[in-house]
Amino acid sequence: MKQTLFLLLLFVAIQSCVVDEADLSRYMSSGIENVEEARDVDVVYTDSSYEVFKLKAPLLRRVYEKRAVVEQFPEGIEVTFYDKSRQPRSWLTSDYALRDQANRTITVQKNVILRNDNGERMDGPELIWDEKTKEIYTDRFVRITRADGSIVYSYGFKSNEGFTRYELNAVSGDMHYQEQPASQDSVPET
Questions:
Q1: List of domains in the chain
Q2: Binning pLDDT at 50, 70 and 90, where does residue 96 land?
Q3: Percent of the chain with pLDDT strictly greater than 70
Q4: Average pLDDT of span 122-139
Q5: Does 190 score more than 70 pLDDT?
């Protein structure tokens, strides 16, 4: 009897240690995502006590992937860039943005507008902002409206963060100019 009871307890103990693999698989493919969300985000980025830029967004969604962290701004962003004297120099807005932390780039899309304090404005579908090189660029179509009202179109654009110096590729557009009246000194005598 004791021997039968011992065998029965041994059999129950062995059965309780067995885990069904199908049972584990439901935990491996759970619907839980590695996502954080924040509302009304206001980030101030400084470097050596200088305010470099201020980023505002209604929604930030941070997605943790296997080897990277991606920050999505599905409701758009507003960025103000400052110079060393803490004066705002340029402004960037878009309806969507995606920040790749590993490469330190922000891709802004949909209704992208970049303005500077000189009255110039760049409109386009997409810009890439490289935080390491402090450049903003695209190979897509852009429209630049200058302070004098002239409009320049380009496929490709590259600028500093302040949008004070920029390069254009494949340029076309209307340029306003004023003719200077001829001076009396330059008229040849007859």
A1: 32-175 (2.60.450.10)
A2: very high
A3: 72
A4: 87
A5: no
At residue 185's C-alpha, the angle toward residues 183 and 190, to 5°, is 110
**How far is residue 103's CA from residue 69's CA, in Å, rounded to a whole number?**
10
What is the spatial distance between Cα 149 and Cα 160, in angstroms, rounded to a whole number?
A: 22
Q: Indicate the residue type of 28.
A: M
What's the length of the chain?
Answer: 190
| Residue of 74 and 22 predicted with greater confidence | 74
Q: How far is CA 144 from CA 47, 91, 152, 155, 168, in A?
A: 30, 14, 5, 11, 10
Predicted pLDDT at 122: 87
What's the 3-state SS for the chain? CHHHHHHHHHHHHHHHHCCCHHHHHHHHCCCCCCEEEEEEEEEEEEECCEEEEEEEEEEEEEEECCCCEEEEECCCEEEEEECCCCCEEEEEEECEEEEECCCCEEEEEEEEEEEECCCCEEEEEEEEEECCCCEEEEEEEEEEECCCCCEEEEEEEEEECCCCCEEECCCEEECCCCCCCCCHHHCCCC
- The pLDDT score that the predictor gives to residue 30 is 45
